[in-house]
Amino acid sequence: MYHNSSTVVYLDGEFVKADAALTGLYSQTLHYGYGAFEGIRSYRTEQGARVFKAKEHYERLRKSCQLLKIPFHRSVEELTDATYAVLERNGLADAYVRPLVYCGPNMALGKPTSVSLLIAAWDWGAYLGEQLLRLKTSSYCRPHPRSTHIEAKACGHYINSILATTEAKDAGYDEALLLDGDGFLAEGPGANLFFEKDGVLYTPQLGNILPGITRATVLHLAYQAGMEVREGLFSPEALHQADSAFYCGTAAEVVGIASVDDKPFRKSWDASLGKVLQKKYAVLVRRVVAEPSLVD
Ligand code: PMP
Questions:
Q1: CB of 252 within 8 A of CB of 245?
Q2: Which tens digit of pLDDT belongs to each residue from 209-261?
Q3: Average pLDDT, rounded, for the chain
Q4: In angstroms, what CA-CA distances link 60 with 28, 36, 116, 210, 254?
Q5: I need a surface site. Which of 10, 36, 193, 288 has the fewest CB within 10 A?
């Protein structure tokens, strides 16, 4: 699914066959989850493959490494150019791009001895956004910001995401909803949360969540459309009282939420602010000429 015998990846400044690329067994990233990554989308547009928000993603990757004290000196420009080259060499347009900064052999809990960069990409078909998610509030909370740099997209943080997703799916739900360490609404395992109440949009403030690039884009689209948005600390009860809700993230784009803990939202997704933003986001990422009703 991710690669075949002709797939090419960018590894430490060179383009190599994925099948031939090797990594060691004594990596700090493998043993301790000490690494950083990104999740980026490329879309097929009339002008060819377009990497959405490449600058923002690579700035976040650099920031993640800085916060985690992983030496990483590649420029946003080099990383962006390499991404387009990986897409081109693999003949990809609608794709998911996975940059990973990982550390070399070191079994000590200290500074990395060496740092590598991988950029891989694989096919990611056009997403229809039709399905609505049934969420379960997780028994796991997000990692506490005093335990780690929660705003870094660190490999090890995703143990929390995997545990929450597995718990939700094992219980028959589509996805988890995580609270922060103080019991306020936080985010999904791989997406940020918005909800609507009486025509106003609400989203958890930064501090206990990953500062999503899609979240920032959705905020921008909402302001542009004249919607009122409030960022803050909100209780799970506020979500239970909400009219509608959605998750947003690079992979999921904007996806509606049908219910939380089996309690459905009273407003239909098609009549929600989220639906309006979902359409605007789909137009923006592909930069196609939209029907007037989609951009109004
Ligand atoms: N929260 C978490 C925990 C995530 O993993 C992601 C996906 N990167 C997001 C939110 C959404 O971030 P973005 O919009 O930058 O993809």
A1: no
A2: 999 999 999 999 999 999 999 999 999 999 999 999 999 999 999 999 999 99
A3: 95
A4: 21, 10, 17, 10, 20
A5: 288
Distance from residue 4's CA to the centre of ligand 1 (Å): 27
- The pLDDT of residue 284 is 96
pTM beyond 0.90: yes
Choice among 136, 153, 279, 280 that is catalytic: 153
Nearest Cα residue to atom 7 of ligand 1: 190
Q: Which residues of 145-179 are buried (b: 16+ CB within 10 A; e: fewer)?
A: eeebbbbbbbbbbeebbebbbebbeeeebbbbbbb
Rounded to whole angstroms, what are the CA distances from 277 to 119, 194, 225? 30, 11, 9
* Domain 133-284, CATH among 3.20.10.10, 3.40.50.2000, 3.90.1710.10, 3.40.50.261: 3.20.10.10
